[in-house]
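tool=predict chain=A
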Amino acid sequence: MKVFKAFEYRKGSTVLHRIDPRSKLVYLVLLTSLTVYFAKPLALLVVFLSFLPMVYIGKISARWKQSLRGSLFFIAFIFIFNFIPTAYSSGNLLDAAVTAIAMSLRFLNLISVFSIFFLTTSPEDLTQSMVQMKIPYDYALTFNMAMRFVPTLSREAQYIMDAQRSRGLEMEKGNFVSRIRNYIPVLIPLIISSFRRAELVADAMESRAFGASKKRSSLYVLRMGRRDLLFFLATLGLALALFTINFLL
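tool=predict ok
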């Protein structure tokens, strides 16, 4: 569940935290698109290395590493389930290993870029920026709440797992199928708890007359400055450089 720590925003005072969400949204979209487009492991490794300065500037290395450690199981899963079918169909172990490494790096890059974005972007600012981009408030709020629920559900799942372990449930015991079956006592209370939480949020929104007024006002307006424009231009330059490197490799 540590992988979901990547979506939990913590207030900070670094330059990266103060960048306008719209500029960071461009960074997220471009780096995600390049990660999905690239197929060469070396190009994907270069993309991964490009995240390191951002992690350092945003001072989020501890939580970023935590999310990477939490994703090791999924990376191993992706590697195995790409390696075996490719090796079986092509008969070439080297090609299978290259494909599996590329897919694993792609997942690692996606975790990293989303981690950088959500760890340094305030949910309120993100919603406000989406509204200012003419996205309907309902959709912006829904997206924001969905992203904020991810770490909440992660915490709740961890509490349920700890409670079940204290009752004697051994989740890491047995073969692969048994381990999946061991998670059923965690999933059922988690689903019920999620429905309850959704109902509470709906009641709270209704009590505040959500949607009663078609014309909404904002407490503040986000304005893009020189720093945001520089970040935007640097993102475009980085994307162009990565695209060129992928072409040359």
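Residues 176 and 182 are 10 Å apart (CA to CA). The longest helix spans residues 137-166.
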